[in-house]
Amino acid sequence: MKRQLLPLAILFFSSFTLPTIAQQTAVDFFESGITKSKAGDFMGALQAFSMAITMNPDNAASYYNRGVAKASLKDHRGAILDYDRAIDLNGKDALAYLSRGISKSKQEDHRGALLDFSRSIELNPDDPQTYYNRGTSRSRLEQYRGALADFTKSIELDPANAQTYYSRGITKQKLEDFSGSLPDFTKMIEMMPKRPQAFAGRGMSKVELNDFTGAIADLNKAIELSPEDSESFFYRAFAKSKLEDYKGAIPDYDKALTLKPDNYRAFYGRGFCRSKLNDQRGSVQDLNQAIEINNANADSKVVYTGRINRATLDKLRDQVQERNKIIELGDERAEAYFSRGVSKNKQGDQKGAIIDLNKAIELSPTYAEAYFSRGLIKSNQGDQKGAIMDCNSAIKLNPRYAEVYYVRGLIKHSLGDENGGCLDLSKSGELGYNPAYKAISDYCN
């Protein structure tokens, strides 16, 4: 069995020999998909792999590579579904588990990702990237000792990966091994001297080790390389205050608060410095802010951002073009009512449009376009549940109606069903409606 590998960040494309002569057409589409993937044409690759799957639905490699194409388009939910099928067909493919784990981690499913990375390691125990990814998932789950072991193994297998040294250094900080973290940050600095994170990490460890002068030197460099990093300003201010340079600390606290106005620790630090400089009024104001913000953080619930709101839904939905094409007028005249309804809607007569679309559906109950157009109008009127019911009907009548999946996905997302909405957007993109991938990129990651 032949395999071709092409790295894409930490995803891989694989090419297997497909069944021979009888499936030659499927082979052509599959090879076209591989070629397009290598050229970065992931939309074209996705369509080619879909055709290969249609002609040969039992080939794991087609599902796997379509999953990679979807992941490259940031459609990780859709990618997971394809990886699931690839694994069902070939449960011994380490790359499929690795790639599914990556997509799960992108969806914050770190427990599921950890299981996939572990299975990938069982099948291929010498891949440093899989250990790195499992270490990252373990860190997200606060399993720091397991993460440390994975990062160490990854370095053992690939000592040239600077990012792994940084990740191990951060993990050692979480385990309060600040002395142990210093060599890791230093190693990354030697390998990548323009990366501010390594200087910032080493500076923070030096603060914890009371090496405030050394910390300031590292944080100076971090700020030089990344002048918008509020944490570096905060830690440099803290180091200065520990050296009793209260006057020098205040501008750093000011900058930290400009960049991150809800940093109660910075208000506390600046208030402390102002007190030392006999600005008691300013000190009290800062300490009041520190207490107020800290209490608000303790009492507030998590607020999720990025949901498609009503304005965004209206904007994206209204860009969808209805399928109003001239066709033979049937005896029941449903097409005429449909076309008149579409025209009335464009003139702003939504009530009249609904009446005509209702009549079109009454005359032709299998008229998918009429259900979809009526659903668009209902959504515009704010009747999102009614719109979803019409979209459901349109999809039942035409399961390949890409625009309907797109609109239903937007509506579901706007109503709080992010997973269901993003799966619909994925299906829309899979069926060839390209705007779905822009929505996925903006609202599903």
TrEMBL record:
<dbReference type="Pfam" id="PF13414">
    <property type="entry name" value="TPR_11"/>
</dbReference>
<feature type="repeat" description="TPR">
    <location>
        <begin position="196"/>
        <end position="229"/>
    </location>
</feature>
<feature type="repeat" description="TPR">
    <location>
        <begin position="230"/>
        <end position="263"/>
    </location>
</feature>
<dbReference type="InterPro" id="IPR019734">
    <property type="entry name" value="TPR_rpt"/>
</dbReference>
<dbReference type="GO" id="GO:0009279">
    <property type="term" value="C:cell outer membrane"/>
</dbReference>
<feature type="repeat" description="TPR">
    <location>
        <begin position="94"/>
        <end position="127"/>
    </location>
</feature>
<feature type="repeat" description="TPR">
    <location>
        <begin position="334"/>
        <end position="367"/>
    </location>
</feature>
<dbReference type="Pfam" id="PF13181">
    <property type="entry name" value="TPR_8"/>
</dbReference>
<feature type="repeat" description="TPR">
    <location>
        <begin position="368"/>
        <end position="401"/>
    </location>
</feature>
<feature type="signal peptide">
    <location>
        <begin position="1"/>
        <end position="22"/>
    </location>
</feature>
<dbReference type="Pfam" id="PF13432">
    <property type="entry name" value="TPR_16"/>
</dbReference>
<feature type="repeat" description="TPR">
    <location>
        <begin position="26"/>
        <end position="59"/>
    </location>
</feature>
<feature type="repeat" description="TPR">
    <location>
        <begin position="128"/>
        <end position="161"/>
    </location>
</feature>
<feature type="repeat" description="TPR">
    <location>
        <begin position="60"/>
        <end position="93"/>
    </location>
</feature>
<keyword id="KW-0677">Repeat</keyword>
<protein>
    <submittedName>
        <fullName>Tetratricopeptide repeat protein</fullName>
    </submittedName>
</protein>
<dbReference type="InterPro" id="IPR050498">
    <property type="entry name" value="Ycf3"/>
</dbReference>
<dbReference type="InterPro" id="IPR011990">
    <property type="entry name" value="TPR-like_helical_dom_sf"/>
</dbReference>
<feature type="repeat" description="TPR">
    <location>
        <begin position="162"/>
        <end position="195"/>
    </location>
</feature>
<keyword id="KW-0732">Signal</keyword>
<dbReference type="GO" id="GO:0046813">
    <property type="term" value="P:receptor-mediated virion attachment to host cell"/>
</dbReference>
<keyword id="KW-0802">TPR repeat</keyword>
